[in-house]
Structure of Transposase:
Amino acid sequence: MSDIHFSLRRHFIETQQVKQVFQRIGDVHQDMLRSGTSKGLTLLGVSGSGKTTAVRQCLASSFPDGVIPGKIRRTLEIATPSTPTKKNLASAALTGLNDPFADSRSHTEGVKTKRIIKLLTNLQTEIVVFDEAQHIVDCTRSTTYEAADWIKEIMNACNIVVVLAGLERTQQLLWTNEQLRRRFSAVVRLRGYDLYVREEAEQFVALLAALRSFLPVPSVDFLTKEMIQRFHFASNGLIDYLIKVLDHATWHVLAGRSNGIDSNLLSQVFRDEVWAEAPLERIPFAAEFNFKPLTGAREPFEVFNGVQS
């Protein structure tokens, strides 16, 4: 692979938060195997906190030979539809299972569900992940209730671990069905690192150092006190925003548009990748930056009623 195709997304960093995800999924999985009954886990976090990446890496490392086409599929990731119903949730699950009848219009929701249960059993599936699970609670109350009932039906019929990965409001799904809620005792939350908490500040610095070690281009020192603060303001402590900025900056250097990653280039790519309309005093890498969090109205990390969007 040539450097021009470099991306930090091809490098996995096992942070403390990721280790927590690994441990909790592993614990719930072992509990399911011991008890012989389905268990659930909710993985909650703001957009950009690394939920999907953490789950995928956990499953890949736990089940390195987890797929034998037509015979075994230990894990299943379901892309939750943006406007979910029982039928299109079933179709999404069948799509994830590579079922040729996933989009069959002649099959009812009941037929699709029976097919899912049969496939999960025959393929020895152990963990099912619903990604972007907040979509289920973003619809009408009746749709949310039906979806919760459908997930419960799958869990009653199979011995599996179900992971609901999504934004904080995903947890509302469990409050629509008491039986489903009892199965989901485990909760893991991913969030941005807080520089005012010593342990988290140390983890954020370690993350910056790891990201810098992968870059194939020259750059300014990321680990001065001022640059640590600037990177934190630019990302709100979230790994996805760090990667967006650094990947784009690296591409500029590899394409010959810059000699290295410096504050000017970082300011430019911040506008490209995070906030196009940012005035100079609100660009964390600009000399004019006022060192205030980007959490105000219409800013990248805007807060609504105490909850980050």
User: Anything to note?
Assistant: The first strand starts at residue 39 and ends at 45. The mean pLDDT is 92. The longest helix spans residues 16-35.
